[in-house]
Amino acid sequence: MNRAQLIAHIRQRESFLCVGLDTDPNKLPAGMSMLDFNKAIIDATRDLCVAYKPNVAFYECHGPEGWRILEETVRYIGNEHFIIADAKRGDIGNTSDYYAKTFFSSMPCDSVTVAPYMGRDSVEPFLQYPDKWAIVLALTSNPGADDFELLTQDGKPLYQQVLTKVSQWGTPDNTMFVVGATRPTMFEDIRAIVPHHFLLVPGVGAQGGSLSEVCKYGMNEDIGLLINASRSILYASSGSDFAQAARLEAQRMQEEMKALIA
Amino acid sequence: MNRAQLIAHIRQRESFLCVGLDTDPNKLPAGMSMLDFNKAIIDATRDLCVAYKPNVAFYECHGPEGWRILEETVRYIGNEHFIIADAKRGDIGNTSDYYAKTFFSSMPCDSVTVAPYMGRDSVEPFLQYPDKWAIVLALTSNPGADDFELLTQDGKPLYQQVLTKVSQWGTPDNTMFVVGATRPTMFEDIRAIVPHHFLLVPGVGAQGGSLSEVCKYGMNEDIGLLINASRSILYASSGSDFAQAARLEAQRMQEEMKALIA
To answer: Is the pTM of this model over 0.80?
Structure first.
């Protein structure tokens, strides 16, 4: 999916919601399979969101069967939503080539989350596919972000060094950044460095970030945000009404987004 | 495998060689399966090395079938060698839990390579399993290492900040670091920070690093090094004699190691 198509979906659905598919068998209604759960969540939220983000760890821990469920989930989503393989990959060039192939050729994902630590040759293989995207970690929403991302490096925090360098390797048409919602005022500094890039924003919902604060400081001329919610939608109810409850929570967020776009 | 067992294998085999299983179907003898190739390489090198390192990217790009080959390869290696899942994982705490479960519970690996960018809660889940190890990226052997790892951060290069902080989260009994062979003199600075940790060293062989230089600056009282070679062993011959050729190359390295230990 290219940038123009993504923006068109956002405008049409009045939503920049990404539903995170962190599917945990221990949290599903009794007797329900991961794949059936995912399909029900997707059917209940299709018109309310523009992106789905399967968290690869939750699938690969089930071995070959988990990998099959991931592939079938991605295929079930189809091509009207932006698909993010949340895999945090990154390795030397010839290995990153294989990771890119995994998610872009073997599976029809639109994007992969990528860890920047190993530098340019670890990111560039993800930028070689037309209409596919690298979503590079910049400032994450977890407590450990303080350990390295916020350390000052040559006068700037590491995450700003990452934004500055990585934005030169690709373009706003093939690169996004992960920026957590838990430090919303930092979006001002971030937008000074990458005014046009889309940002994938976890941390609204279960982690406590504020949607309106993120939008106040982070929105750009094309919206420029994909706001992820995982647990707050997937597990809005633990009963047999989980899909309706997921829809209600997604709808609540979509209506808040619609008001913020207007 | 615990530290004492690893050291005993090194002393007994007079080797600290790790064979990297970066198995590429396009480089195998005609008609040979990935699994049969891996088994032949393992059988040809068992007595000459102490560790095997499957590069997970090369397996997961083949989907569920690739994942099955990875599992069968790990089981075939058995428990007389230290098994490294070279996966470069790392995510927020609850997701890293799943990655740790993947490689330590679902599969009998001894260790996983971990990217440090997201900080403490992304690494700690890998330190919760007895006799299992996190091998954290510090200074890698690829050109992109210059981009962030070598940037000066609060007066020290980022990779030294990583060594300093991460070594406080675990111990030399459950934490190793990746340090590439391509900058051997930097091992002096590294040993000043982590004198007792084992280091996993890629970059000898195809990438041009020198084994004797690495040992000169990097060896400690327990050897403290695992030297990886992948392509130079796996593809020493492209013909039907690939296993014998792999053994000869592994033997050449083991003999060099034996002389350096003495």
So the answer is: yes
What are the pLDDT digits (tens) for A176-230? 999 999 888 899 999 999 999 999 999 887 777 899 999 999 999 999 999 999 9
CA distance A222 to chain B (A): 28
Cβ neighbours of A155 in B, within 8 Å: none
Tens of pLDDT, residues A158-184 = 999 999 999 999 999 999 999 999 888
Write the ipTM.
Answer: 0.96
Q: Are residues A63 and B71, on separate chains, in Cβ contact within 8 Å?
A: yes
Chain A residue numbers touching B164 (CB-CB < 8 A): none
Taking CA atoms, A5 is separated from A12, A51, A80, in Å, by 10, 12, 9
Q: Which of B65, B86, B147 sits opposite A165 (nearest CB)?
A: B147
Catalytic residue among A88, A156, A165, A216: A88
CATH topology of domain B3-261: TIM Barrel (3.20.20)
Q: Mind telling me how many Å the CA of A162 is from chain B's nearest CA?
A: 8
Planar angle of CA B160, B162, B164, nearest 5 degrees: 70
Which residue of chain A is at minimal alpha-carbon distance from B207? A92
Identify the pLDDT of residue A215.
95
Positions in chain B whose pLDDT score sits under 70: 153
Per CB-CB distance under 8 Å, the chain A contacts of B154 are 151-153
Minimal-distance CA residue of chain B relative to A96: B57
Name beta bridge partners: B84: B111
Q: According to the model, what pLDDT value does residue A214 have?
A: 95
Cα B215 from Cα B224, distance rounded (Å): 9
Cβ–Cβ pairs < 8 A, chains A and B = 187
Taking an 8 Å cut-off on Cβ atoms, the answer to whether B148 and A120 are in contact is: no
The domains of chain B are located at 3-261
Instruction: Check: CB of residue B117 under 8 Å from CB of residue B90.
Output: yes
Which residue in B has a C-alpha nearest to residue A178's C-alpha? B118
Beta carbons within 8 Å of A52's beta carbon, 6+ residues apart: A18, A19, A20, A21, A42, A77, A81, A82, A83, A84
Number of H helices, E strands in chain A: 11, 10
Answer whether B89 sits within 8 Å of A92, measured CB to CB. Answer: no
Summarised one tens digit per residue, pLDDT across range A24-75 is: 999 999 999 999 999 999 999 999 999 999 999 999 999 999 999 999 999 9
Q: Quote the CA–CA distance of B142 and B132 in Å, as a whole number.
A: 26
Task: Enter the DSSP assignment of A118.
Answer: T
In Å, how far is B62's CA from the nearest CA of chain A? 7
Answer yes or no: is pLDDT of A154 > 80: no
pLDDT of residue A153: 67
Greatest Cα-to-Cα distance within chain A, rounded to the nearest angstrom: 54
